[in-house]
């Protein structure tokens, strides 16, 4: 990871993303708290998160737009646009203005998808193929670090100064990111003109994902795991309340423990990709979620801490493995569409599972649901592991099986995702 950070161009991008990710981390929870403050409704506050996720259905269109422009100027414009779309928040005064927060949340979700798709292509242009895992690992380490304190800082700032000043701080973060990326000097050719009719152009990213064996297996396996991973967002509250007999505020302590695991996972992920390949790293991340969930079926705080550390390690491994695989296996002209489509294919099942988990926890014992999560994610991870040779470690000739290595659970410290 230190090698990629020695590159002046990546250091500049890294600094820009630090500003934008800080803005993002303080903003998301604060929007939901703002709605709760204005309405007193937990359901309406939760709908804010749904509003952010809903634009994922526009992924093919977003990716097509991203692929029609050069990455650096488009990334600058998208950050400036994100700052501008927050300005309606200054008009929010009372309950009657809650719709403004929802509109901003939906537009922010669209912006997040756009920035993610553009960033994938920009990293590909700045960083040599052999350093892509290091670049993605560095960014995931920062993202996981911000998860430790960013949302709590946003909530504290909202309580202290209100939503308007919080929106101003977030706008400053996005404008700073645009200004820093504007200093980058990247040799970019104009994107090639479209050669197919627009429906075919919109679907080109999905066709590439379906036709490339490693990407197809990665998204099918991760998608299967995502169908139950989101249950944990609701199950963790039942675990704290019914299992540990503690106040709901104790969830914050466990989320912090998970964030520590996320930092470890971000630091480890480039080495894991180099050792077992992108699909192998993704398989390790999904598999780690299994024993973490199974451990939480037994209400014991010591086991719970270990499980959440394991869950924290899981997420960066999956994200770095998938992002690096997409960047290495996708032609540059399709990268925006493929990145946007993969984001939607992963986030869609996760969003559905969050909602399903909230319903199921009121019907079934949370321990049974944790066992279900553990079994499904372990099975999904094992299926991914069987396909690890589809993306051999860097330096292994294509088509030549890499030497047999132990399963990642045999040599990596246990830890995994938000449970």
UniProtKB/TrEMBL annotation:
The lineage of its organism: Bacteria, Bacillati, Actinomycetota, Actinomycetes, Micromonosporales. It is a multi-pass membrane protein. Signal peptide: none annotated. It comes from Micromonospora purpureochromogenes. Keywords: Cell membrane, Membrane, Transmembrane, Transmembrane helix. It is found in: Cell membrane. Residues 1-190 form the Major facilitator superfamily (MFS) profile domain. PANTHER family: INTEGRAL MEMBRANE EFFLUX PROTEIN-RELATED, MAJOR FACILITATOR SUPERFAMILY ASSOCIATED DOMAIN-CONTAINING PROTEIN. Residues 394-419 are annotated as: Disordered. Residues 407-419 have a biased composition (Basic and acidic residues). The chain crosses the membrane at residues 12-35, 47-66, 98-123, 167-187, 219-239, 251-272, 279-298, 304-326, 366-385. Pfam families: MFS_1 (PF07690). SUPFAM superfamilies: MFS general substrate transporter. This is MFS family permease.
